[in-house]
Amino acid sequence: MLKIAWSDAFAHSLPEGHRFPMAKYDLLPEQLLYEGTITEANLFAPAPLPERFILDTHCPTYWQRLRQLQLTPSEIRKTGFPLSDELVNREVIIMNGTVQAALFALEYGIGMNIAGGTHHAFTNRGEGFCLLNDIAIAANYLLNYKGVNKILVVDLDVHQGNGTAQIFRDEPRVFTFSMHCGHNYPFHKEQSDLDIPLAEGTDDAAYLRQLQTILPRLLDEVQPEFIFFQSGVDVLATDKLGKLGMTIAGCKERDRTVLELCKRHALPVAVSMGGGYSKQIAHIIEAHANTFRLAQQLWF
What we know:
This protein is α/β, with parallel strands linked by helices. Helix content is 44%, strand content 12%. The protein has a single domain (3-299), classed as 3-Layer(aba) Sandwich (Arginase, Chain A).
């Protein structure tokens, strides 16, 4: 059964003025339920992640300062959100959503988080709407407690996964792959194991040609036992914070490429939704919903 992390806290703990497009965290499961792609049985509400698993990835000093709301005004501005207890608790729940999705992936082949993809969080700081790094925390959980020895991170958000790259810079068991718009946030890029910076306006055909050439080769070279897929839909031409030129149909083919390869190679995959900031929220919901539709079609 497809298992999907979702909680009221994903949207409702955000401050006023930051609810759009974060309303997708409520609208997306509503759409999937309405159309019959999923039922209530597919959804699970993660508990907050125990602190010890956060500390496997994040600096203890940073975590204590974050938990006690002691970040400086400059640090808070870089995260993009006013800091609050509700916001920190939201982040800790999201972290466990991806950990649990990874465990469901080991059992069923795929697990998904309606939130997550917080790839701009570093070991010792947050940036870009990210306080903690769910992909890194879940990857370390698998390495430390589940006997997984090789992980591939496939980050296809429009923005480079700079925090994930920094966290795993010296960890050979995790290979970080980021394909993103080269001239976009973050303007100082970290070095992933493989970065593919794309030109502004890259369309469906050029994007898919790159991905369909690179990803099969990576699977052969890296030989991963597990994949984390950051499936941000800010690659759309309609996105306010992205600079690529993809359509909703092209974004769906991107996801099909990744998920079909995982299925064909019997590679468990945990999917985090990542960014999506189109002016029309219907575009965001449709593009994200396609990822869940494909998961159901391919695995179940």
